[in-house]
Design goal:
about 90 residues
Length: about 90
């Protein structure tokens, strides 16, 4: 199981980065942040970099928590937090 965790931790950042529609997301996100929120280009780049690093660093502890509590429970907890933090 540790072998799979190591493999996933190496593959997931590449999969996540390449599987999304990055050109559309980056353009819309950058335009929205610069025009609506009055961020500079440096601030937009810094925000993207920090959030990516945060996700990569927390990936292994989060995978361990998911393994401990189970997939179904982790989906329920994630949905709960997503619903109450986003809405």
């Amino acid at each position: 199981m540790k072998q799979e965790l190591k493999r996933v931790s190496r593959i997931y950042p590449w999969y996540s980065g390449l599987s999304g529609d990055l050109m559309f997301y980056i353009a819309i996100s950058s335009i929205w942040l610069t025009e609506v929120k009055d961020f500079s280009a440096f601030q937009v780049t810094l925000l993207t970099t920090v959030s990516s690093l945060f996700g990569i660093i927390l990936q292994i502890p989060i995978l361990r928590i998911i393994k401990k509590i189970g997939n179904t429970t982790s989906i329920r907890v994630g949905s709960f937090f997503y619903y109450y933090l986003v809405y």
